[in-house]
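Sequence in, structure out. Go.
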Amino acid sequence: MKYAKTILLSVGITFLMGCAHFKPQPSFKYIPWQERQAKMKKNKSCVINGKLSITHNKKRDIASFAWQQNQNNYIINISGPLNLNSVKITGTANQVEFCQSGQACLRAKSSEQLFFNQFGWRLPISNMRYWILALPAPAKMEAAKFDQYGHLVVFKQQGWEIGYSDFQSVNNVDLPNIIALQNKKFFIKLKIKEYSLCSN
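Output:
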């Protein structure tokens, strides 16, 4: 009986692994990048939830995030394991506010300036509001590569390499589930759990 249970368990694990390996993929069709870009730019407001990891100086931090974008305004909530060390970043066209649990809020004219003043390094939040929607920021894009469907899968911009994978269709727009951002000092990976309230 014990031997039979072992066989059944092995078969079950093999079946589950097989299901994971042969996970059905969305049926994408080829759309030229210019057309895809025009459709994605119509997403003026969006709420994105997921997990992120930041690797810097051989140290890796993992957190949950919720990113709410409305036109040029955004609110980013970041919380560590067990909701500890929560951070709220609120941005408008003229000001960014950084609030960390148990500490006074900080303000600056831009996110890059704020992060540099506080931590000594620059995090491109103003660019990430485009990158997180699989769009290049309004600056020169280099070394762009596309897959067979016309999805932008990798490009370089302002010292960062941005990569996308595991696309899903959201309101007839293909958006990535995994986003990787890398420069000489940082490796940031975002795993999107949900795109919601994305609208024109």
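Check: The helical segments are 2-21, 33-40, 111-119, 125-131. The domain at 38-199 is CATH 2.50.20.10 (outer membrane lipoprotein receptor (LolB), chain A).
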